[in-house]
């Protein structure tokens, strides 16, 4: 499936992914998530784009499916996985995150990543319910979003309420890229599917 308007990989997105700030944020969110993982997991990376999170997790032995509507992003994700020798542990599916319940079974994943997506959703609780549909009971949901300084901001307190409304139990809340004098900061929330 190709979704109109998202079949490209803009140079600005590619440049940002390679920036020190992006690498630092990926490393911090991975470290936060890893605190809650035990052994290899089946991971769904919703709106996973170019696969930076997916490849990092695959290098740790996890089996990761990148779900994204943009074919160019998925092509870049598979190239990145191939470059790092983990193409056998990274899979791609071209579709919207809201399509997850129709694409996957109810216990297909142990972990779902919702990184930099929720702030764009018109129905955040609906999106969270769609993403927890293929998540096993007790599985983890990692949500990352901008806390301030961005055009689309989704306050962490609202996300905590949204997660509870979607039937998830919040386990941890982290600040990511919180720097003095820096206009943009991010949060990460780890929740359990109940």
How would you describe the overall organization of this protein?
It comes from Actinokineospora alba. InterPro entries: Methyltransf_25, SAM-dependent_MTases_sf. This is Methyltransferase domain-containing protein. The chain is α/β, with parallel strands linked by helices and about 190 residues long. About 35% of the residues lie in helices and about 30% in strands. The chain has one domain (about 10-194): Vaccinia Virus protein VP39 (Rossmann fold), CATH 3.40.50.150. The chain contains 7 helices and 7 strands. It has a 7-stranded mixed beta sheet, with helices on both faces.
Features:
single chain, 194 residues, alpha/beta, Rossmann fold, seven-stranded mixed beta sheet, 7 strands, disordered N terminus, Methyltransf_25
Short description:
With 194 residues, this protein is an alpha/beta fold. It has 7 helices and 7 strands, in the order H-H-E-H-E-H-E-H-E-H-E-H-E-E.
